[in-house]
Design a protein that fits this description.
Order of helices and strands: EEEHEEEEEHEHEHEHEEHHH
Bound molecules: guanosine-5'-diphosphate, zinc ion
Strand order of the largest sheet: 10-9-8-11-13-12
Helix content: 10-25%
Shape: globular
Number of strands: 13
Strand content: 15-25%
Distance between the termini: 61 Å
Length: about 300
């Protein structure tokens, strides 16, 4: 007979939290407290929240024995394998910054993350003009209100089967939306009284919460500052691909191999903007981002 004390079980799971050298791995509907196998340190592999891992467990404790290949990872906060980034902007208080949204969508596409655009606080103003801009992109775009509950079901449906994070400036309503989705979580919302405690220097340990068949990352502090620091600039060669609605037109530019879609002769992207097929605001964001990185050379 096997002694249950020494019986090891092997599972494939997902790291939902990391703290003080322990990894909390959800597998088979249970969370196991795991240490990383010593071999990782010598190979310089550090498991991240979001990683799919192999574990060997005994009781509720275990060891991470292998990390599956990652689709993507972010440095700040350190998380792996995000499928969707919910980019939140409020229609009022504060009004949306479309350039920031476009930087975040480009950043997401660059990292193989699908952007979802949420115009929040739609009880305070009309989201229609903003929705119209993003209708011309392939990104799911919706209006939500944490106060009336409008759109929350549609946002929830987009979490199914995905690991999702929320991004956007402070005060746009990220915590309120996450709380509407996960009523038990009760993240502190950004009322003036607790603003001081939530600056961008606050260290947070990221945690994933199961939501149906997906996961939500509890990162209301996942600000655009964290995502868009200088080390994350997208090179000019890669930038057009980060605006997926340009894709059908790029092969039609007259000088396909050299067209930067700026002022180039015979640019089909520019023609699509003039015909109203590509949103002029999106194209303007592309131009600003291009100007910002045009001096940086690829190595
Ligand atoms: P965060 O910093 O992005 O996490 O934003 P919070 O969720 O903390 O919200 C910032 C402020 O906006 C708080 O005072 C919320 O009560 C308010 N707020 C959030 N969502 C809504 C909404 O849908 N409608 C209205 N009217 N106010 C909201
Ligand atoms: Zn072009």
């Amino acid at each position: 007979m096997t002694d249950p004390e020494i019986r090891m079980n092997r599972y494939t799971g997902k790291i939902i939290h990391a703290l003080s050298g322990f990894y909390y791995v959800e597998a088979a509907d249970v969370v196991f407290e795991c240490k990383a196998k010593g071999a990782f340190r010598s190979k310089n592999i550090s498991p991240l929240v979001g990683d799919t891992v192999e574990i060997e467990v005994n009781g509720d404790k275990g060891v991470v024995t292998a990390v599956h290949e990652r689709k993507n990872f972010l440095r700040r906060p350190p998380v792996a394998d995000i499928d969707r980034l919910f980019i939140v902007s409020s229609v009022e208080r504060p009004r949306p910054n479309l350039l920031l949204i476009d930087k975040l969508t480009a950043f997401a596409v660059y990292h193989s993350v699908e952007p979802v655009i949420l115009f929040s606080k739609c009880d305070l103003g009309d989201p229609a003009p903003y929705l119209a801009v993003y209708e011309k992109t392939p990104f799911p775009t919706l209006a939500v209100s944490a106060v009336t509950g409008e759109g929350v079901d549609r946002a929830a449906a987009l979490i199914e089967g995905c690991t999702c994070a929320f991004a956007g400036n402070s005060g746009v309503g990220k915590s309120s939306i996450i709380n509407a989705l996960l009523p038990g979580l009760e993240l502190a919302t950004n009322d003036i009284s607790d603003k001081l405690g939530r600056g961008k220097h606050t260290t947070r340990s990221v945690r994933l919460y199961r939501y149906g068949g997906g996961f939500i990352m509890d990162t209301p502090g996942f600000s655009s500052f964290d995502l868009l620091d200088d080390s994350e600039k997208i090179l000019k060669e890669d930038l057009p691909d980060c605006f997926p609605e340009f894709a059908p037109f790029i092969p039609q530019c007259r000088f396909t191999s050299s067209c930067a879609h700026m002022n180039d002769k015979g640019c089909a992207v520019k023609a699509a903007v003039e015909q109203g097929v590509v949103s002029p605001g999106r194209y303007e964001s592309y131009r600003q981002m291009y100007e910002d990185v045009k001096g940086i050379k690829a190595y």
